[in-house]
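User: Hey, my collaborator sent me this sequence without any context and asked if I could get a structure. I don't really work with proteins. Can you help?
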Amino acid sequence: MSTVSEAAWYVVQTHVNAEAKAARNLARQGFEIYIPRYLKRRSHARKIEKVAAPLFPRYLFVRVDMATQRWRSIQSTIGVSHLVANGSDPIPVQRDVLGLLKAREDERGFIKLDWRPKFSLGEKVRVLAGAFADNFGLFDGLGDRDRVAVLLDILGRKVRVSLEADVVSAA
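Assistant: No problem. I've predicted the 3D structure and written it out in structure-token form, which is a compact way to encode the shape of the chain:
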């Protein structure tokens, strides 16, 4: 009777902002790594840019064959906090999870997030950043691309403004 061992994906928790460091060190040991990333909007010094960021901060996926690989070395890898486990037994990720994540990647390997707002027409919203930060308004529909239309009360009248969708939240 022969047993066929098969590699599975597991979750590793990393130290704060150490996903790349942990991934490099795990890859050096021969493990296959996957860090799902997306383009995050960042405002800095009056500039707005999109930067790559981990979809799950402090977490990455590692593929391990428990029967043939020295998986316990993961625990002492620089950048790694621990392998997610139930007691001392690492918990494998369901088979379709990584496939579903990879299916949402664009041509550059970034996860495409559903940017469409979850607001209803006329719902009260709050502007989080930009020239209208901390103002409240009413959701007035979708604009072009990643923008939404919001009715703001400016100088005693309703003014329709077009804003980036990610700077507006439910009030």
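In plain terms: The chain has two domains: 8-103, 124-170. You can pass these tokens on to your collaborator as they are.
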